[in-house]
Amino acid sequence: VIAIGYTHYYCRPRVLDASRFRDFVADARIIVAALTGQGLQLAGPDGSGEPIIKSNLISLNGKTNCGHAPNSAIVVPWPSADASGIADPGQDAITGKWFAGALLSSRQCTGDCSYESFIIERIFKPEGWEKPKDGLYFAFCKTAFRPYDLSVISILIAFKKHFGDAVRVSSDGTDQQWFDGKLPCSKLLDYGFEFQINDSGELVPKAADVSLDIAGGSKGVV
Ligand SMILES: [Zn+2]
Known about the structure:
The chain is of the alpha+beta class and 222 residues long. The chain has helices spanning 18-37, 149-163, 175-189, 206-216; strands at 7-12, 42-43, 52-54, 57-62, 78-79, 94-98, 101-104, 118-121, 137-142, 168-171, 195-197, 203-205.
């Protein structure tokens, strides 16, 4: 079993505010409906059925039986530096290799659009071994740059928008890949481009990132 792969991360308090979660869920529903309408194949957490988006839970994945052609060359995929978008069916998005597998120029299916389930519960139920750090529990979703990655990052942008400093979102991807999530958020919900993935891989408001740099003084302000 290979544990590495393209992943997004988030840290959240055990209980998320109910009214904010309601607004967040409403936005997630709009995102999922729009992306599904554009042909993105989304499913429930196990890759079958419908995405679950309800008042206390968001739980989805790509669709296992998506009907896309198998591509066995896509092993432990990782985006190339300028990777973006979703590959057309039949297109080969492999542009090279990284140390563990294939470099992709676009999100691409291998013949199975599912990978890890993406789950955000309003009330997190930690396992015995899960301890909060600074009051926040750690969660992640390895999407392996499958097409449903687009829905995951778009929903994480909505998550950050609604919960602000109460949560933290970070990613193996760069701002280049996250542009693809900001775009639907901006078109559908009128926010998104005020965030960026900073040098540490964290999704932060652009203005706040600048003030942090000034306060820290470590990067130098010209
Ligand atoms: Zn597929």
